[in-house]
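Re-run with default settings, no changes from the original entry. Doing this only to confirm the output is reproducible before filing.
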Amino acid sequence: MSDFRIRTYPVGQLGTNCYVMYRESLKKAVIVDPGGDGTYILDMCRQLSLIPEVVLLTHGHFDHILAVKDIKEAFPEVKILAGEQEKALLKDPAVNLSSAFGRACTVNADEYVRDGAILSFGGITFQVLFTPGHTAGSVCYLIQAESVLISGDTLFSGSLGRTDFPTGSQSMILSSIRERLFVLPEETLVYPGHGDITSIGHEKVYNPAAGNRE
């Protein structure tokens, strides 16, 4: 039986899903998309006796990055990773929308990862999937051994990410979902940036991105 665990913590004014993943045998945390309320996220790690090892960002919008600074200050050795095409957005408060919400924020990742990269943190192996559309540098993280996909704001339960923000593209997000995500096994559980958990099989039937195929 797997000792893989994933906890969901909706944080910030937009209820962004921050995910904390770990193995019971190691107690090293992988934190995905720490939006607002870094104190709360760190408190949850302490309650679980977890030491944060890495922060993975699916994209650079403010509601997914605001607590990066808090985590880095509490654990300076933590690595911050993001998609290689998201660097400019992460560094521009106007483009990442943080200035528009009164909390100008920038992030300098320690590493910008490429499509297909294999990452290993906390005893968990991730594959980076480049899924542009919601932003130009959006990525998803696939944990193949656990049949889990962290989809950020690319794919939601019954919906898909907005494309009317800077660097967004409707045609690109549809291609990303159809060509990169819908080809995954149908039993793959999808953990989105907002809302409820779903599955690839469910979304292939009920998601609007599944329709109007060319």
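Helices lie at 38-47, 62-65, 68-74, 87-90, 170-181, 200-206. DSSP finds six helices and 14 strands in the chain.
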